[in-house]
Amino acid sequence: MFVATLAIAFLLGDMAPPFQVPVAHAQEIKERRSIIDFFFGGRKKRKQDVTDTKPRKKKPRNRNSVQSVTTADAPGTVEKLPDARKVIVVGDFMASALADGLVTAFATDPNIVIEKKTDGSSGLARTDHLDWPATLSTYIEEIKPKVVVVMLGANDRQQIAIAGTKEKFQSDAWKNEYQKRIDKLLEVARSRQVPIIWTGLPSFQSNSLSTDAAALNNIYRSRVEMTGATFIDIWDGFADEDGKFIATGSDINGQPVRLRGSDGLSLTRAGKRKMAFYLEKSIRSLADVATMPAIALPGTTDTPAEAVKAAPDIADIKVVPPVNLADPELDGSTALLDDALIPKSSGNSPRDRLIEKGETVDAPVGRVDDFAIRPATPPKVEPAG
């Protein structure tokens, strides 16, 4: 009777169960039984463990913030000299890839420091997001760079607001305003006597985007070269012989590698390094840095002072004795070019005869390609002595 009463009370909810079921065992994943389970038995039920761990909150990432990275942050970088030349890289997300390649390129050079000041969403079409002329002016005043590297245009395939109206991409009004903004950015560096290198855009997987990039490169080249700045075209390094996009090509060592990402926009590590390869020589030249560091030859440090003093100073040589061209006496001849030493010929080389007249030159007698048929020469018979 007591057991029956207890069971009825439990079912009606008036009493709590006399035992507690663990939470992990209480929350079982219920799976639907299939016909295979009906004939061959049920499968073991999977149990879901319940933990009290709280999910970690991810910090929001500001994609529009300007990235600031220096060459000193790269792994394997040598210590930079106190008077190392600073190079600023500004622009959009393509400029960010270029800066990464330059950081790798000059990681072992103590004379050059790369300052990465890029904004992936920036451009010249919209000044409400970021005004590059004003921003570049601030960077030049703070960092005092020797060279400024610019790469823009990947985000500029959009309308431009002019006096309250929006002009379509590549319209006449759009081009005129865009050229003015390029000139304004170039004027910031020119007024402060800082050389600027403008890098052109590479090809892209999208045909329309590549076409627009090529049109923008023509605008950049004309405006940059007009002001005397340096424009570097990298298109051929990321395109085939027809000028079309390639995802795989040769790296700076000539080895086939993947240069572009699967999205057709981004660049791989090898692609970034190849893009920087086009700028290395110009950066060293404008930054007044030797292409290769000076290498001390063996024994040069032990050269006697008397030998150094005895060496002629080329800067002091102003007059040299004349050279008699009629009798140089360099090869035993009595003239500059002895006519007797010139081989007599018709004046037409075998190449000229083959291309101009279609004639082939007879092979020398006895050579493997000498197929001429000649009469047999009877052997000489020595008279009996």
UniProtKB/TrEMBL annotation:
User: Region annotation Disordered: residue ranges?
Assistant: 46-75, 341-385
> Which domain of life does the protein's organism represent?
Bacteria
Q: Where is the composition biased (Pro residues)?
A: 376-385
Which InterPro entries is this protein grouped with? Answer: DUF459 (IPR007407), SGNH_hydro_sf (IPR036514)
Basic and acidic residues biased stretches: 350-360
Q: Which Gene3D superfamilies match?
A: SGNH hydrolase (3.40.50.1110)
> What protein am I looking at?
DUF459 domain-containing protein
